[in-house]
Amino acid sequence: MDHQRIIRDVTADLPAATTALDACQRFVTALARHTPAAISLLLQVQGRLRCVAATGAWQIFSTVPPKTGIVGRVYATGETAVVPDVAADPDHLPIRPDVTAEICVPVVDPAERAVGVLDLQWSAPVDLQLWRATAERLAARKARRQRPADEIETDAAGESGTDVADEVEDSE
Predict the structure, then answer these.
(1) Are strands 61-64 and 101-108 parallel, antiparallel or unpaired?
(2) Secondary structure of residue 4 in the 3-state scheme
(3) Whole-angstrom Cα distance, residue 139 to residue 143?
(4) What is the dihedral of CA 125, 107, 71, 30, to 10 degrees?
(5) What is the pLDDT of residues 29-77, one digit of tens each?
(6) How many CB atoms lie within 10 A of CB 4?
(7) According to the model, what pLDDT value does residue 1 have?
(8) Beta partners for 42?
């Protein structure tokens, strides 16, 4: 796997994006050309993690409370999660029933504050340590190009999906 090529391919088209949502979608689409993983990019918007771009899954959670699931844990702690067996992680929120492994990395702003997460989930064997390095570098580059959350919110208005908050609150 050529990490430099992946990073170059994923970030090359970002300057052509006309909106923050467009940049996020271009980012995820380009990354999907290099891995069969289900990919989600969630950004903090009005106190919640909002999925602004995704591929590889037939269902997504449109929003997730910031401390819910692996994505919430990564967002809250700023620490990358490498999960070789998602069934063994009590924080895993299943999107696809066949997912076996996950890497979730924080997307941080220039002041090192978490603004979101990049989440990759696989259903086949994968070298998680190699993908961790690539995902961390990509998330860092995405953050440098990130536009304000209010622009993301405006761009993403009206997008639909499942809100995990009600499901989580009902189970507590």
Answers:
(1) unpaired
(2) helix
(3) 6
(4) -40
(5) 999 999 999 999 999 999 999 999 999 876 677 888 888 999 999 999 9
(6) 9
(7) 74
(8) 51, 117
CA distance 133 to 89: 21
* pLDDT for position 145: 52
Residues 86, 100 contacting (CB under 8 angstroms): yes
pTM for the model stands at: 0.81
Closest CA to 151 of 15, 21, 63, 16: 21
- DSSP 8-state class, residue 147: P
User: What whole-number distance in Å separates Cα of residue 75 and Cα of residue 53?
Assistant: 17
Look-up of token digits 């405006």: 154
Q: What is the DSSP letter of 100?
A: -
Residue ranges per structural domain of the chain: 3-156
Q: Which ranges constitute the DSSP H helices of 13-124?
A: 20-32, 69-77
Q: Which residue has the tokens 């860092």?
A: 140
Residue where the block lists tokens 């979730």: 104
Pick the CATH number of 3-156 from 3.30.450.40, 3.40.50.2000, 3.40.50.170, 3.40.50.20: 3.30.450.40
